[in-house]
Amino acid sequence: MAGHQAHQAQQAQQTLHVGGEWRAAVSRATREILDPADAKPFAVVAEGDERDADAAVAAARHAFDTGEWPRTPVAERAALLRRVADLLVRDREELGLLESRDAGKTLEEGRVDIDCVADAFRYFADLVVGEGGGRVVDAGSADVHSVVVHEPVGVCALITPWNYPLLQASWKIAPALAAGNTFVVKPSEITPLTTIALIRLLAEAGLPAGVAGLVTGPGHTVGARLAEHPDVDLVSFTGGLVSGTKVARAAAESVKKVALELGGKNPNVVFADACATDEDFDTAVDQALNAAFIHSGQVCSAGSRLIVEESVRERFVAELARRAGRIRLGRGTEDGVECGPLVSEGQREKTEAYVASALAEGAVLRAGGRRPEPSAERPATGYFYEPTVLDQCHREMKVVREEVFGPVLTVETFRTEDEAVALANDTEYGLAGAVWTTDAGRARRVAGRLRHGTVWINDFHPYLPQAEWGGFGKSGVGRELGPAGLAEYRETKHVYQNLAPKPVRWFAGRPQ
């Protein structure tokens, strides 16, 4: 029995994937992965450092420069991505549970995430297969064949966040592979487990050794090294603004391609006409709850700024606060739980600090604002925080300006359409936003004026793998998903062929 336990412990530490092999960190360091519902460790992973990052990049570089994957026919690459999608469907329950325990979200959210990951792999498989052999350019001569083609960018460093570990990894890995690249992925050190599982599925699907690299470890060591590494051709990062700017600076030294998704401070604009009937009112309130409190608000596109027309503000906020107070908090794997814990104690303390600053600046607490009482489904050691509604907020408040990444909704009011648009755009970010109205003309006008990468009309949160995702301003650069998401992982090349070459005679010298 002791020998079996020792073998399991050794296997748990071998979570680095380099050159097709699973290995421990060079330093032999490990990290315990905590379940945020009770703060108890339930897994152990390797804690890599710069040396491990270097080894993974070297393997990916070798696989790209000398291996078969970049030269594999598109149809074969697409077939592999579809096999991965099928394996994800096969392991949906296991992976959904792992995502729930690792990130603290509800089990149903975890299952939905796995479905979306499979959709991403299928989408990029279909996209590359549906493309032609390049764009023919008319050179104005029958003696010239000119074509623009797309080639893989090379070795990609993929740095993913802790809130949607596998989903965000798939948004990078699927297009990177579809385009013919090799990659090294660094998941968040807090939530790496489903990414490790995905790398195993890639191998099971037949991906050649060395194409997929994985280094588990901290951002300030592993992530920083990947961003600056001269043999990395592209770095794609999803995370916070501060870390993202560091990645951009590090990548600039070697002038590599950079894609950054850095979050948002997303407005949810509700006009009075969207609440004219009881049914419309119920829908708008329900959607405002979903916008703000799904996954305890730990969503880059969370509708954390409710901007509601003054004439319906009191009724709307009162009902919103009442329903927020009834949200059932608990361990995500328990039946009936609607909202899980925050991912870490640090994230909860950060959330508490934002609420305290808002109250000090004059906000009115309408719901939540504290840690819930412990219960059988909410252990006292878990990182739970009640869904919080802060009324009478204004733009100068820190909680309105900065991304909280917790279950905190601020309420601002407006009287005119112009004022609503001005408030919604008064942010350094520009990832997503929504407008609620029954006036079709107003809906189109406001959506057109909002400076955000995704705008929902009478909805919040849905996305499509075939539609680009990304933001304006400090929400980042580049796009994920859609054709532009694939283009991030490619270089464009113009091939000009002269079919009837002859001397130019530009210079005077001629054969004697």
Mean pLDDT, all residues: 96
Going by helix content, strand content and strand pairing, the class is: alpha/beta
Strand order of the largest sheet: 14-15-16-13-12-17-18
Count of DSSP helices?
Answer: 16
Kindly state the percentage of residues in helix.
Answer: 25-40%
Distance between the termini: 91 Å
- State Rg: 25 Å
Tell me the strand percentage band: 15-25%
Number of DSSP-assigned strands: 20
Q: Biggest sheet, open or closed, and with what strands and sense?
A: 7 strands, mixed
Runs in which pLDDT lies below 50 for 5 or more consecutive residues are 1-6
Shape category:
globular
Family: Belongs to the aldehyde dehydrogenase family.
Domain Aldehyde dehydrogenase: 22-495
InterPro entries: Ald_DH/histidinol_DH (IPR016161), Ald_DH_C (IPR016163), Ald_DH_CS_CYS (IPR016160), Ald_DH_CS_GLU (IPR029510), Ald_DH_N (IPR016162), Aldehyde_DH_dom (IPR015590)
Pathway: Amine and polyamine biosynthesis; betaine biosynthesis via choline pathway; betaine from betaine aldehyde: step 1/1
Describe the fold and architecture.
The chain has about 500 residues and is of the alpha/beta class. The chain is about 40% helix and about 20% strand. It has helices at about 1-15, 50-65, 75-90, 90-105, 105-130, 165-180, 195-205, 220-230, 240-250, 280-295, 315-325, 345-360, 400, 415-425, 440-450, 480-485; strands spanning about 15-20, 20-25, 30-35, 40-45, 135, 145-150, 155-160, 180-185, 210-215, 235-240, 255-260, 265-270, 305-310, 365, 390, 410-415, 430-435, 455, 475, 490-500. A seven-stranded mixed sheet has the order 14-15-16-13-12-17-18, with helices on both faces. A six-stranded mixed sheet has the order 9-8-7-10-11-19, with helices on both faces. Strand 17, helix 15 and strand 18 form a beta-alpha-beta unit. The radius of gyration is 25 Å and the shape is globular. The model is unreliable at about 1-5 (pLDDT under 50). This is Aldehyde dehydrogenase family protein.
